[in-house]
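Q: Could you write out the predicted structure for this multi-component system? I'm mainly interested in how the pieces pack against one another.
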Amino acid sequence: MTEKDTSQLPPSDGKGTESLAEDFRSNAVRDAVLLPILSVFTGLFIGAIIIIITDNTVITAWRHVFDDPLAAIAATWTSISVAYGALISGSLGIVEIWHGIQAMMQGQGSAELGVAMIPLAESMTQSVPYIFAGLAVALGFQGGLFNIGGEGQLLVGGLSSVWVGYAVTGLPWFIHLPLALLAGIIGAGIWGAIPGILKAYTGGHEVINTIMMNWIIISLSAWLLKVGGPMSREKLPITPEVLPTAQIPQMFSTQGNRFHWGFFLALAVAAFVWWLLYKTTLGFEIRMLGANPKAARYSGIHVRRLYVIVMTVSGALAGLAGSVQTLAVDHWVGLGFSGGLGFDAIALALLGKSHPLGVVLAAILFGTLRNGATRMQSVARIPIDIITIVQALVIVFIAAPAIIRWIFRLRTGGEAAAPIFTKGWGS
Amino acid sequence: MTATATSFSPDSYAGRRERRKAIAYGVFFLLVAAMILWFFAAHSEGGIISTMKLNPTTKAKIIKVPDLKLPTLTTMIVLGLLTALIGFYQIIRGFKNVYLWLGIVASMFVFAFLVWATRGRSINLLGILTFAVAAASPIAFGALSGVMCERSGVINIAIEGIMLAAAMMAVVVASMTDSQWLGLVAAILTGGLMGWFLAILSIRFMVDQIIGGVALNIFALGITSFISQRFLQPIPDLNSGGVFKKIPIPGLSQIPIIGPVFFNHTPIIYILFILVIAIHFMMWYTKWGLRTRAVGEHPRAADTLGINVFLVRYVNVIVGGMIAGIGGAYFTIGSVGRFDENITAGKGFIGLAAMIFGKWTAVGGFLASLLFGFSDALQAKLQILGKAQVPIPSEWLLVIPYVVTMIVLAGVVGRTVPPAADGQPYEKQ
Amino acid sequence: MGVRQRVEIIKVLYRDASILILDEPTAVLTPQEADELFHILESLRQQGVSIIFISHKLREVLELADRVTVIRRGRVVGETKTADASQAQLAEMMVGRQVSLSVTKGEATPGEPVLQIRDLQVLDDRLQVAVDGVSLDVRAGEVLGVAGVQGNGQTELVAAITGLREVKGGKVLINGKDVTNASPRAITEAGSAHVPEDRQEDGLVLSFSIADNLVLNTYYLPPYAHGLSMHDEVIRKRAVELVKEFDIRTPSAMVPVGNLSGGNQQKVIVAREFSRPIRLLIANQPTRGLDVGSIEFIHKRLIEKRDDGVAVFLVSAELDEIMGLSDRIAVMFKGKITAVVDAQKVSKEQVGLMMAGSTLEEALTQAPGPQESAPEIIT
């Protein structure tokens, strides 16, 4: 922490916003906005390089670069434009939407627009679990805890919700649906609370414990879901379908448009987390715990209990990702359901600087990228894992802003205090 | 020890706490005894024999030992009563080294379980042990890698990712060159490169070491899955690197039981044995070891004495990465010969737990890994025995290593003290 | 002299050093040990060793050095020969204005005991006995100073009283209420304030604003909060008042505390702890590492609190601070209280001897008293 010379300043009435405060604020704002954008940009750029250097046609063209240099450059451009073109059209479909609007203006009805909206709607749909999972990790970060257990917690959330969704019958939807959601929240909350309790009362590091909890539920779900297992269908290793009374309704009737009310639930939960963190005493305590646990103890906070609370709420948020995804989109749970979402969430939380608004934006960005990457996979045959690579790069750049500053020759400024988790393992 | 409320002597306070703990262990031992008697003994019939085979199934040149034939019920009762005896002694008098006895009781329980599960059948105990050593090796490489890094003060949570990347490079290079040895070299270089990345992030850029490690893990997962789908699946020739041949060590491999368990393996596992001894020796008896430990405990003091903190950390983390790289090679060219997405399946993290369990020492980490390897092997074997013998879903047994890891981390089995500067970036003043 | 200090110096000499740099070497020494160190340094100087001696204790600098360089905020602000300099001059150079080095305070009017400690037993992190049967009373309207070389159990003693460390035996009472092993919050609510030893570690959240730090332990109470909901406006308004009242030099109350200088950071803590209605003030190393100006400010405020009838429990490794502020002095050595004496009736040398392990009788006979008058024992 740099100490600025404030002793030379005149006594202040405390209200003034002189250069120091402004300097600090503008730097902080720049860091909070510019760095994430540049990080994502750089990540995508390196992703492009990886796509190019692993593309056979490009490699072949460059082998003959001296015979036909233009062909080499053209092949490179084609490779990347096809890939990222598919990414963009598959996730946004701006052009199609424009055509749809034109068609509607010409009185041809909204059918074309409805179809054209599907990619964008799907991007938003895919960002729903990201919002929840990102909030889960962000809340943990704020409280100084690193919850890598999102993966397992959302599996527990999904399984619990689905179980209530198909096993409990005869309820009207306004009881059944909240009950199913609640089951996911409670199940995942407990799953998150266990590492929290271990952290608070034995000092076992939450990073390893949450990873272990992931493997435990993955192993157990293999048993739950295997054919003949307690939760599987008769001949398929997946759970039965959630009853309509427990499903989160989709908003559009267009075939293939899966956009659902869960998106707004996610936004509402994000707003709730923001309120919790910045407007309540509990949030004050959580942020204090994350910024300086010793000061938190000094100030009279029950640190151990707070660790458990943070992990429980974090787990519940991650569980909601699984619950909403199953109740709104999938309607059942199969093996490999979580699909790396818990890890994606880490990138989201870091990218969003652990602020709920930032997390929502980051989640929408990555939901869009994921969705586009699916199209990219089918059109350009580029494995969807490229997004995972980009995410890893984004984490690195966010965690080491010096790299981005060096690449873009930015001047160093008011460094926002990064969360610190590495405090050893045992105690 | 008696302590009254008016006595404030810290001896008596510490004594009271020790006493409570001792009794808790005793009660736990009694519970184990009760489980053996109530659960296993009550479900065994008299006259039934459990057979433990102690010879390899292959026709290796070895001095044969007779199979162990145990009457199931009698064994259960004997083991149960012995455990109860240990429990009572622990409550009344208390053992000096309670962890040793905890280990003994746990082993007796496992043995009782094994004998009970084989009631009326036979099981190849030697096979389980041999497989345990093999299954332990990637965990042990992970633990050794962790020891190298953390003794110098850098937390390496990227071991999982390093292994994953190295596993893939090993099989690709082995496929292309038809040489597992070159594959191993490629794995080591990949590990070193990944270690270097981690070192740059945590030492040069002072990134939080856990976040840096997680980023590397995600990166490794992404890049290996990407390459796997883009190249390995369309071109299967790239993903058939073959497997190291088992090389029985002349002489040693002929010792009954120990020979086949430890000295009839692939070279990767012999490298592990050598590394365990080498790292142990170097860490405690050489200048390099002293420097490493000084840097991990008190980097500033080490710096004032003229040790180059950054250099020591760089070297250790890169070497640690290389060791994890060898562990990665085990997954492909050391066992199945091909790469699958996320083939490491959390073994790197379990390696970290083994390192903690082993109190940040090479030998301790290795022994802890053997324990984890044994639980792996046991689970695989019990699955084969079938439901009638073991009425527990085999997936439940899969959970055991993870639960054990959590229990270890909770410090139930002795307090562990990490190097003082573990995880803290060093900044010149 | 402290064994570890001695080892360090021998290590340096063994390597044939011709330049010796000492950074605050006397922080862990008693005055007598410091004298011994000075003798050694003097003989080294005569052997031709160059010595750079960094210290904030003006007396030591004047005693030892040949030349003095004063540094303020990374800049050299003056250079002088010790022969031409006085403490007041050096202090003025350090601060940039005239400062009064001694605290002026009136006679104490002690009342009822507020803090009562009985047979306190506390262990340190290595589970060794750190506080060994300490009994003390601090009365309303007096300053009880605990003198002792760092690491003799003072840290653990304060931590135990404030609820931050487990009490293994004995009792702590505040206002007659048993607060042994109570939570830090309960102890705060019992009317105590705590200026912690390590302000950046314990007392502040550096990334939080000044305003938030000013309510660090009262954020949950009205008017700052009702139930779950916090009232930012009230907190900000209060902060603006306190910034003014306690002369915290900052452009705004919303600046993160980490951006302030050490002295202003400490003023934030002082503002927070002193502005509440309290009956007991526990100040642990309240001026460590601060500039002379801030020290003067904090000392003044401490005495004000005493005169308001607050019981002040002062722990400091600075013997001068203890001598200047305390009404009574308790000397702590190896976890025990050697003696509690009237501050007026002992000399610095006598306290110094006790800090090094002498008994009260030994100290009284071996060192001269203040103005040669015999001190009387209080407890």
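A: Regarding packing and overall arrangement: The radius of gyration of chain C is 22 Å.
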